[in-house]
Design a protein that fits this description.
The structure holds three protein chains of three kinds.
Chain A (H helix, E strand, L loop, with lengths): L8 E3 L4 H10 L5 E3 L5 H6 L7 E4 L9 E3 L3 E5 L4 H6 L1 H6 L1 H8 L4 H4 L4 H7 L7 H6 L3 E6 L2 E6 L4 E3 L2 E2 L6 E8 L6 E8 L7 E12 L2 E10 L6 E2 L1 H7 L6 H18 L10 H20 L1
Parallel strand pairs in A: 1-3, 2-3
Antiparallel strand pairs in A: 4-5, 5-10, 6-7, 6-10, 8-9, 11-12, 12-13, 13-14
Helix pairs in contact in A: 9-10, 10-11
Chain B lengths: L2 E7 L2 E7 L5 H8 L18 E4 L2 E4 L12 E3 L12 H9 L8 H14 L5 H8 L10 H16 L1
Parallel strand pairs in B: 1-5
Antiparallel strand pairs in B: 1-2, 3-4, 3-5
Chain C lengths: L16 H6 L14 E7 L5 E8 L9 E3 L24 E2 L5 E7 L4 H7 L1 E7 L6 H9 L19 E8 L3 H14 L2 E9 L11 E8 L5 E8 L4 H12 L6 E5 L12 H16 L3 E4 L2 H7 L6 E9 L5 E11 L7 H11 L9 E8 L14 H19 L3 H6 L21 H11 L2 H12 L4 E14 L5 H5 L2 E6 L5 E4 L9 H13 L7 E2 L18 H23 L8 H15 L3 E5 L8 E2 L4 E2 L4 E14 L4 E12 L6 H20 L5 E2 L2 E2 L17 E7 L21 H13 L5 E2 L3 H9 L27
Parallel strand pairs in C: 1-12, 8-28, 10-11, 14-15, 18-19, 24-27
Antiparallel strand pairs in C: 1-5, 2-4, 2-6, 3-5, 7-15, 8-13, 9-10, 9-12, 13-14, 16-23, 17-18, 17-20, 21-22, 23-24, 25-26
Helix pairs in contact in C: 5-6, 8-9, 9-18, 14-15, 17-18
The chains are: A alpha+beta, B alpha+beta, C alpha+beta.
Chain lengths: 291, 157, 791
């Protein structure tokens, strides 16, 4: 335990409005802590810079899953266990369930929140590629009001997001349009459980008469942020999955992904390995679309 | 800066005045003298610190005490009743599920949590349920046996 | 259970098991003493150099702290092993990252953070060597700037802690025989094999609490250290040198220990000495408990190895001769390297009949934290190399891997490479039969060969056959001269007094079983004392798979003595019920006040061993095994995983089936980690992945079904026919798994840990130059949730 806990302040404002007021009054002064599965590790290793924290873990206003006509809205304070238990998400957004199920361990899923996960902005996080593939949107609130942007615009760089100092993520919304689509997700980690991703692909495709009408691909650990593989999508959109065309389609997809992926060597894995595996996962998905 | 935090621990009302960022693990061990929860890694990886908070399994090394305010906590000390072993504890004893014992409190609580959610778990569910608790001694086989015996014991009641 | 006289071979509850499942077992960090302070260590941030200055920040009130420097050590500044090259605290130079320089103590644990941060050390850095090859090169090139270890009186030379040569028979006879064998051989097969460092990763980190008593003039008169450890008497010995005190003034107590695996064999002498010095300086008891990051970066690991095989074999698959070269990376100080090297040497030829053998082995110095004991202790390294090589030899000759082994197994009445007569039955053929049957080997090999053609997941089977010596090498047990006592408690129950420690393997349980069996009373009636050196005799260290066999035998003998005394002196009849035992015991106590019986080690058979020549009876007894691994290699992700494991072994009579299974399963799990998951990532001698997120140990979701099968051949050496079991399971998984991967993919990998990145690199290197393997890992980029490390 490498921090002096007495040097830290933590308070738990009773409602969201109070939090927003505090953020507006002193933007950048406080760090928000939800489930704590990231910040408390930083505390334990002596690297939690912010000494003043606001706890939002208990705010019921942020912890909800609402099914509406066009979209499912997930409050930022919703835990991964909440997501796994939700029947609507299980029925319509299976990739979210899978990603939630391999986020840390069950003990971590009981605490970790989707809002905390995207704000921590790790390029290796499990859920962001799914949100990219599903074309989710993010709603942020402040005293100034509310704004909603495509999730694909949320990340600006390594651990940097568009979130303003007086803002907090309110919810993530996922369109309910994937009923007929093919869906795929696979994570390659250091082991089968409690593993940080070395490469992961989440993808959805609308296939009609052996043709890729529409395809969306999100990836982890291939860039400094969760990656929407727009280039690979462009190369694959409209392509045929018929036997005589399949190898060309796969080749085009792989080549495009190889170009747009910018993985790194780090302590866990290598750039070349990550790129190769990501390409293999994409190929696996494309082959599955045929069968 | 200190906060007054109140919670129920193993059925008993408890209160402490401590820095709000003090870890639940340290409050349990230092302030409540419940040393069953252990520190194995400080990163939420090993599960040796696992306890139940409002019935949910959590790694107590990652919970600031302020967030435990008003909660119902169950530690390993709360699993047995008046010295009588819980069936899970009995099965761990019988099947060799504990070797050095350091992972055992967390492992038993994870098992408890698993069986509450899945009274009849498949082997896969057992593996997943316990994947957050690292054991270096057993290779997990005896632990899975113990869990399976505990499932049988529960149905026998 | 009270009526069960045949307690050996049954599976009674673990002696301290109830406390463990209740969460009531007290590990060192659960304990406190009144007025206790906390301790921390200021460590070297460089690999090698001299200490120029030590600067204490003016922001800190140092009067609140106790500070210990090398110059404060009353006795010798050394952590004693055979050599005294290992300082307790660095005085003017450092030889590895994390080397302890200063110690601090303070009443508040949190104040130590500021304290350690407030000490700034300036160095004059010197070039370091970080691999076996770099260390060898410095010697070859006579590069004095990179001679990092000068040699010693104990057989070391520049950069080399120790060297051994093992010849089967006389040296000249062996060399002539080898020359002829290679001349006439149909095939000569060469191979080079590497194993990496491995972290023991006990879930309870190292920790101690120390106390110190001084007289009026401030001189230390006694010290007491309690904590997590395997060998309390080793710590006693260490303290006698540090404090210049006799043994009786150095008391060491083992507290409940949360895993050890060798990692708490010699290291507690370091942390124990440190805490005791701080207790001396502060005038208070001092607790030192490492957090995970410190424990991983600063304490011992398994020795990395490089082994070269050159084998002469006939076209019928008869082994004609072998030349084996072993090199171990010992880290910065000699510590246990000579002993690890010795076991590596003796195990190098494996369970086979070799007409001629030469093994040359050396332990090289590098600027890494000293490597140390880890379950297997040199044998896993040697047996990995040998068993990979045997598959290679089989391929060269064109026969099946199991067939090559069968044609060359040692058997009853044969002599090993050291000339030891295998007097007790050995039946490797039968173990092989059983392993192949239990694992469905042939059916699977055939089926996988067909299925692999149509699948991106390639499956394969692999075998390893091996043995592991129980007990100390040669005359080691005689030198240890272990003593075991048993006494009567006031209520008439017997209490065993040994220095053998429990750390999960079941010491308490099996020794109480032996006592119960011998005394013919219920297991529940037998007590075993906490290991406190002021109370228990020295029955030797808890290492080398010796506890069940050697110490168990002593427990059997000393309990027999107790029965004798009660027969002779307390009217205990020939055939008695447990109640009569208790009655006799109480009569004895009434008459005499106390009873304590004592025995010392006696070899069951005479042991002839030549340390210099490696000739004779290397170990009292061996466990024998054949392991089979079933693997799946996913060519999309380049990941190999073990899908099933069969472990067949003969380790004498099984004392406690549940414990024995648990030992094998746990050892196999560690072996799987050693082979496929656990990589130490080094940069300039420092372990960079010193957190559980980045040092990958298998979880319950990663391990396969592990099937354990025992053959029982009673041995004269252990109680009820038992032999050692603890380390054997570590030797088989590595080579069995890599052999299986070769079977699955057709590609030969000779290095562990074998990570997906390495498989990827090899499989794609046919068309492109080597890249993307673990050589390309960047240890300075930690990746997730932690910013870049200050390297």
């Amino acid at each position: 335990m490498r921090s002096d806990v007495a040097a830290y302040e933590l308070s738990a404002p009773t409602n969201l409005q109070t939090v927003l007021k505090q953020l507006a009054a002193e933007p950048g002064r406080h760090a928000l802590i939800a489930g704590g599965t990231e910040l408390m590790v930083a505390l334990n290793t002596g690297r939690l810079e912010s000494k003043e924290l606001l706890s939002i873990q208990h705010l019921r206003e942020l912890r909800f899953i609402r099914t509406e006509a066009d979209a499912i809205h997930i409050g930022a304070g919703t835990t991964f266990s909440d997501i796994r238990r939700n029947e609507a998400i299980a029925a319509e957004l299976p990739l979210m369930i899978r990603a939630a199920s391999w986020t840390g361990s069950i003990a971590n899923q009981n605490r970790g929140t989707i809002g905390g996960n995207i704000c921590n902005a790790s390029p290796a996080a499990d859920t962001p590629p799914v949100l990219l593939a599903y074309e989710a949107s993010v709603t942020m609130v402040s005293l100034r009001g509310e704004r909603t942007i495509p999730y694909s615009q949320f990340h600006l760089g390594y651990k940097r997001t568009v979130l303003q100092p007086d803002e907090i993520v309110y919810s993530v919304s996922v369109p309910r349009s994937y009923g007929e689509w093919k869906q795929y997700i696979r994570k390659v980690g250091t082991r089968n459980a409690q593993a940080i991703s070395k490469a992961a692909i989440a993808a959805v495709a609308n296939v009609q008469a052996n043709r890729i009408e529409e395809i969306r691909i999100g990836a982890a650990s291939l860039a400094d942020r969760p990656l929407r593989c727009a280039s690979a999508e462009a190369a694959l959109r409209g392509r045929s999955l018929e036997e005589r065309a399949l190898e060309d389609t796969i080749r085009a997809g792989r080549a495009a992904l190889a170009r747009e992926a910018k993985p790194i060597d780090d302590i866990r894995s290598t750039a070349m390995y990550r790129r190769a595996v990501a390409e293999n996962l994409l190929e696996e998905f494309l082959r599955q679309l045929c069968s | 800066m200190k906060s007054t935090v109140a919670m129920t621990v193993n059925g008993e009302a408890r209160k402490v005045e401590v820095p709000p960022m003090k870890r639940l693990l340290d409050v349990l061990r230092e302030d409540f003298h419940l040393t069953g929860a252990k520190e194995g890694c400080g990163e939420g990886e090993c599960g040796a610190c696992a306890v139940l908070v409002d019935g949910e399994l959590v790694n107590s090394c990652l919970v600031p005490i302020l967030q435990a305010n008003g909660t119902r906590i169950c530690t390993i000390e709360g699993v047995s009743t008046e010295g009588r072993l819980h069936p899970i504890q009995q099965c761990f004893l019988g099947e060799g599920g504990a070797q050095c014992g350091i992972c055992t409190p967390g492992m038993i609580l994870a098992t408890h949590h698993l069986l509450e959610k899945h009274p009849n778990p498949t082997l896969e569910q057992i593996q997943e349920g316990l994947a957050g608790n690292l054991c270096r001694c057993t290779g997990y086989m005896r632990i899975f046996e113990a869990v399976q015996k505990a499932v049988e014991a529960q149905h026998a009641i | 259970m009270a009526e069960d006289r045949d307690i050996l071979g049954a599976s009674p509850f673990r002696k301290e098991g109830r406390a463990k499942v209740l969460g009531e077992a007290k590990y060192i960090d659960d304990l406190s003493l009144p007025g206790m302070w906390h301790g921390a260590t200021v460590r070297s941030s460089i690999a090698r150099g001299s200490i120029r200055t030590v600067h204490f920040s003016s922001e800190i009130d140092w009067s609140q702290y106790a500070i210990v420097r090398a110059s404060d050590i009353p006795g010798e500044n050394t952590i004693v092993h055979l050599t005294k090259d290992h300082p307790c605290l660095a005085a003017d130079r450092v030889n590895h990252p994390e080397e302890p320089i200063l110690l601090l103590a303070h009443p508040e644990k949190s104040a130590l953070l500021a304290g350690v941060a407030g000490v700034r050390v300036e160095y004059d850095e010197l070039p370091g060597v970080f691999t076996i090859e770099e260390s060898e090169k410095a010697v070859e090139d006579n590069d004095t700037t990179r001679i990092i270890w000068e040699g010693s009186a104990h057989g070391g030379t520049a950069n080399c802690f120790k060297q051994y040569v093992l010849h089967s028979g006389g040296a000249k006879e062996a060399e002539d025989g080898l020359a002829a064998a290679f001349e006439s051989a149909d095939f000569i097969v060469e191979g080079e094999y590497h194993t990496g460092a491995q972290e023991q990763l006990y879930i309870e980190p190292n920790g101690v609490i120390a106390e110190c008593k001084k007289d009026g003039s401030g001189r230390v008169i006694s010290v007491c250290v309690q904590g997590s450890m395997q060998c309390p008497y080793y710590v006693v010995h260490a303290l006698t040198l540090i404090f210049d005190l006799p043994e009786e003034k150095c008391r060491v107590i083992q507290t409940e220990t949360g895993g050890a695996f060798g990692g708490k064999e010699d290291f507690p002498s370091v942390i124990g000495s440190h805490a005791a010095l701080l207790a001396m300086k502060s005038g208070h008891p001092v607790k030192m408990v490492y957090d995970r990051a410190e424990d991983m970066a600063a304490t011992t690991k398994r020795h990395p190895s490089r082994t070269r095989h050159r084998t002469a074999v006939s076209k019928d698959g008869k082994l004609l001769g072998c030349e084996i070269e072993i090199a171990l990376d010992g880290g910065a100080y000699a510590t246990l390297s000579p002993v690890v090297l010795s076991r590596a040497t003796i195990h190098a030829p494996g369970p086979y009949k070799w007409p001629y053998v030469r093994v040359r082995a050396k332990a090289m110095a590098t600027n890494l934290p000293p490597h140390g004991a880890f379950r297997g202790f040199g044998a896993p390294q040697s047996l990995f190399s040998l068993e990979r090589h045997m598959d290679k030899v089989a391929r060269a000759v064109g026969i099946a891997p199991e067939e090559l082994r069968r044609r060359n197994f040692l058997g009853t009445g044969d002599r090993t490479a050291t000339g030891q007569l295998l007097a007790e039955p050995v039946d490797m053929q039968h173990l092989m039969d059983r392993a192949l049957a239990e694992s469905n080997y042939y059916e699977k090999v055939e089926r996988f060969a067909v299925e692999n053609k149509r699948s991106a997941v390639k499956r394969g089977m692999g075998i390893a056959s091996f043995m592991h010596g129980s007990g100390f090498t040669g005359s080691g047990e005689r030198r240890l001269n272990s003593r075991v006592d048993v006494e009567l408690l006031p209520d008439g129950r017997p209490q065993i007094l040994v220095s053998s420690t429990e750390f999960g393997q079941g010491t308490n349980t099996i020794l109480c079983q032996v006592a119960a069996q011998t005394l013919r009373i219920p297991y529940d009636q037998v007590a075993i004392a906490q290991v406190d050196t002021s109370v228990v005799p020295n029955s030797g260290p808890t290492v080398a798979s010796r506890t069940a066999m050697v110490v168990g035998k002593l427990v059997e003998r000393v309990c027999a003595q107790m029965v004798e005394r009660l027969h002779a002196d307390a009217n205990l009849t020939g055939r008695y019920e447990p109640e009569e035992f208790t009655a006799a015991a109480l009569r004895y106590l009434q008459r005499h006040g106390s009873m304590r019986c004592s025995v010392r080690y006696e070899p069951v058979r005479p042991v002839e061993w030549d340390d210099e020549l490696f000739h004779g009876d290397a170990y009292p007894a061996y466990g024998w095994a054949v392991y089979v691994a079933e693997v799946a290699v996913d060519l999309n992700t380049y990941s190999a995983s073990v899908t099933r494991f069969d472990a067949v072994q003969e380790v004498g009579k099984i004392m406690h089936p549940v414990l024995a299974k648990g030992q094998v399963e746990g050892g196999v799990a560690q072996g799987i980690g050693y082979a496929l998951y656990e990589k130490c990532v080094w940069k300039n001698g420092r372990m960079m992945n010193n957190q559980m997120t980045n040092y990958i140990m298998p979880t319950s979701a990663d391990l396969p079904e592990i099937q354990v099968h025992f053959e029982e051949v009673p041995s004269v050496h252990g109680p009820g026919g038992a032999k050692g079991i603890g380390e054997l399971p570590m030797d088989g998984p590595g080579p069995a798994i890599l052999n299986a991967i070769h079977n699955a993919t057709g590609v030969s990998f000779d290095s562990i840990p074998l990570l997906p990145e390495d498989i990827f690199e090899r499989l794609t290197s046919f068309t492109e130059p080597s890249h993307g393997g673990t050589e390309d890992l960047d240890p300075t980029r930690e990746g997730e949730f932690l910013p870049e490390v200050n390297a």
